What we know:
Elements: E1 2-10, H1 15-29, E2 31-36, E3 40-42, E4 53-62, H2 66-79, E5 94-100, E6 105-106, E7 111-112, H3 121-130, H4 143-149, E8 156-158
Antiparallel strand pairs: 1-4, 1-5, 2-4, 3-4, 3-8, 6-7
Helix pairs in contact: 1-2, 3-4
Amino acid sequence: MSKAYLLLGSNKGNRLAFINQATDDICKRVGNIITYSLIYETEPWGFIDNTFFLNKVLIVETNLKPQQLLTELKTIELKLGRIKTSFYASRTIDIDILFYDNLIISDENLIIPHPQLHKRMFTLLPLSEIAPDFIHPLLNKDLQTLTNECEDKTKVNLYYQEKLI
């Protein structure tokens, strides 16, 4: 079994319902969720929109290989109404693979670790909440250190005080 670290985000429609449905679909199609972060409400990163995102990070045990995982996640996104654009835009659901074990992959349709994760506080806060000691395989720093060093100043606030799935 491998461990995949996934970021879920939604800022269109019923954000919480999309996050929860994606979590359920991941359980059914991808594997067992080992742990998950609190839900954070975050300012859009890379584009201007009035609707903040809800974000959550999951660690999932899976038998799927990285490309198979990507295919399943894209299927879930499509099922939940995701319309893929070539630019940053509002979306019903976005599911990113942040890490897959300690693998480093650079294909035309899949890059692991996610190339922007260390620059995004909305990714680092929930990630370091559940895996602060995980070492980024390219940067050779733990996630807590990357969070402390991140210069991103976009707003990231707890949405729920309790863990909900």
